[in-house]
Give the backbone structure.
Amino acid sequence: MKELLERALNAAQLKGASYADVRLVHRIEQSLLVRNGVVQGISQLEDMGFGVRVIADGAWGFASSARLTLEEAERIAERAVQIAKASALFKKEDVDIGPPVVQRGTYRTPVQIDPFTVPPEKKLEVLMAADAAMRAVKGIAATEAEMVFLREHKIFASTEGSWIEQEIIESGCGIEALAVGPDEVQHRSYPNSVGRHQMTRGWEFIEECDLPGHAPRIAEEAVALLSADPCPDTVTTVILGGSQVALQIHESCGHPIELDRVFGTEAAYAGTSFLTPEKLGTFRYGSEVVNITADATLPGGLGTFGWDDEGVPAQRVDIVKEGLFVGYMTSRETARQLLKLLGPSPYVTGLSNGTMRASGWNRIPLIRMTNVNLLPGTWRLEDLIADTEEGIFMDTNRSWSIDDKRLNFQFGCEIAWEIKGGKLTRMLKNPIYTGITPEFWRSCDAVCNADHWVIWGTPNCGKGQPSQLAHTGHGAAPARFRNVRVFSRK
Amino acid sequence: MLGESQIRELLEKALTISPADETEIVLEAHDSALTRFANNTIHQNVAEVNAEIAVRVVVGKRVGSAITNRLTEEALGRAIEEAVAIARLQPENPEFPGLPDPAPIEPVLAFDEAVAGATPEWRARAIGPICRMAESVGASAAGALSTGIYELAVANSRGVFAYHVGTEAHFTTVVMCDDGSGYAHRAAWRLTDLHGEALGRSAIEKALRSRNPRPVEPGVYPVVLEPYAVDDILSWLGYAGAGALAVQEGRSWMNDRIGRPIMSPMVTIWDDGRDPTGLPLPFDFEGVPRQRVVIVEKGVPQGPVYDTITAAREGRRSTGHALPRSRPQMASLGPIPLHLFMAPGEATLEEMIRQVDRGLYITRFWYTRLVHPRDCVLTGMTRDGVFWIEKGEIAYPVQNLRFTQGYVPALAQVRAVGKERWVLSEGFGFTCVPALLLEAFTFTGVTEMPGG
């Protein structure tokens, strides 16, 4: 394969590229799904190909192919250069990616038990046990139990002299119970909703999740929700469970700090950002208890790797420090653009902080969240609830919607409990809360401590055209927010 | 492009080497390119050649699958071996009805040489004038223009062989100017149906007209919805409740309502994968011919679409709406209508506006998510051009609003249906939809930027 990569880089330069990189990606993905006690399928996907990204005539081009021959490597490199030259027909200025980045090395996700060494029978046994435990609860209409395992081997090489090999391993799992009443449908999920929770870890992660152990509880909660009172329509204190805080970080902090969005290059699809450059270092994003990092070095995080897909090393970056907005996620190109716009400062270096990732060999890298985390606070959850005279505790995301600048959000949760006199009381169904991003984070007055902190995995973050699904992580613990508008499904 | 004869040879070879009781091979191939622009310049420009083979094997009533994008005989043989090994691990699925039998499939022409031959230079020259137009009025255009060839083939050991090749072109633009923005989008298999420059001009004009938006209070208003917003309504009705699995599990907006009027008599919705007005695909991912299925007739739900397994559960025949079955997660979705049409009415947009005393004109919805499956309740934002209508005329632009609204009760409130329909592909599959005038739509929030 070395020859194929070298041939592609060489051909790109011969055809006129001033810069080229090539990524060869081999991905194996295994999925298992049990629904209503029936194995719906086990599938194994093998996907392999290479993509060549070039700068020619000062503009970007990219072409990719699944045909792994030397002739195809030359043809695709030439096509990438042809595309770049077409891009240059209407360019305003030459692409500037800053000083060369020369990296050589290898990275492999550390795992205790390689999930691909675990026999599928054992995986099915766990799923069937969890599914049966949910179905044993009277009133459950449908159940689902899922596992996904991923092994991605990729080689990155560039005309600047980088040569990087990485192997990323991921394990994910989840269960869901559906209860149906005369005019009501209720779901409960574990460990997270929308299918599963996922990490860059091995089979040990699946064992720790203990799907069968949690199955009866979530099934009982789904049934109980059918007859629960609806969440009241009011303004009150809200405590969010850890996975919902993770979703809140993802949508209202993770996306608006993507510098490509800020510069408008996602305007037609994912949208732009309210965190415009003049706010860097001056804007109060949240209260003083709000500290947010983008950290691609966190062990186990779904956004953890050795180098990004531009060959820039994984890094830990401050995003919000004691409530102040201090950093973006950047690429080589956008870091230079920011430097030209704002000049050098403690927050602006002109160098990428290593967040460019592509969803596969056939996609270009974009700025994607690594692990964007709300750092732990000092509270134990039981103390935080006891400290809350009146409010609502909401857990596990059910629906999410936010505007194109990431300001106006409305999130629904699967379940809630009323808090009265420092205690969780009656269960509430269909809870929804809504707000404006900085107002909401400024109203955060407490974050739970490291004992409650989990790096939640989001394996379905959409961005880009053609669309790409990224795998991102979010370290989060339960947190309390004041004066939040809550209501129920109308 | 691989072509029918090469694909037939490959698939037939795969069927002969499979040791399973039954075998299905699905091949999807793309040769596609996309040029993306923002800030009035091309910033991303990509191309891809890929083909993926999905193998589904049946051993007794055990089903296993494997997918590979390597088209060598060795890789294909390995995928079949893996699928068989996986099938043998599983308990029997007592309700698995077997693979479908062959049925006649009428081919549909959906291939345009102009789309197939579109070069990066052609795409750049199509986008350039839009960027120049936007720049000349102080606006900023962003968007994407894609062109490509798509091949789908399905073969199974019961004798099914289905092959389709089609072209697709998609164009989207968002134009921003100060605090105004406009939007345009279309999908077509023929290049001459795309009209990129005219679409760009309409988005620019809307961006200019939507500057200096005034605040508007949340509340319940009559709305004129452009087809872009109606696309969202149809897509969600299709995805979240027009498939048989959703109905069988009791989570569809159709449950307990089939045969009862729940929408305006002006609402008729059907799915037709063979209509060349849209982006046709004459068979599904099991090789079953797609039937035209009426989902709502004059406001009355008629029933969902089926794949083989959901049909067998009710003793019916598949309507040809299976998604790729080799991906287990697709089993959660069940069959889905991907080629949705809404019957046109007789009104123009101007006539609809004239019928509104005080209300809102909406270009499109954005980031819509299902809040609750019964009534198909969605929340989302308006985007790229919202206007206040006063006494039958567009009065002024207003700020974006958040809505939380059941799409089923919304369609009970239809007062007029547009006579022109657009082919759009921003949701699941594509839709061919008119504009609508609705008597009432519920807006639950506004966006205000705090200082800071």
Observations:
- Chain B has a mean pLDDT of 95.
- The radius of gyration of chain B is 24 Å.
- Chain B touches chain A through 96 residues (CB under 8 Å).
- Residues 4-199 of chain B form a domain with the PmbA/TldD fold fold (CATH 3.30.2290.10).
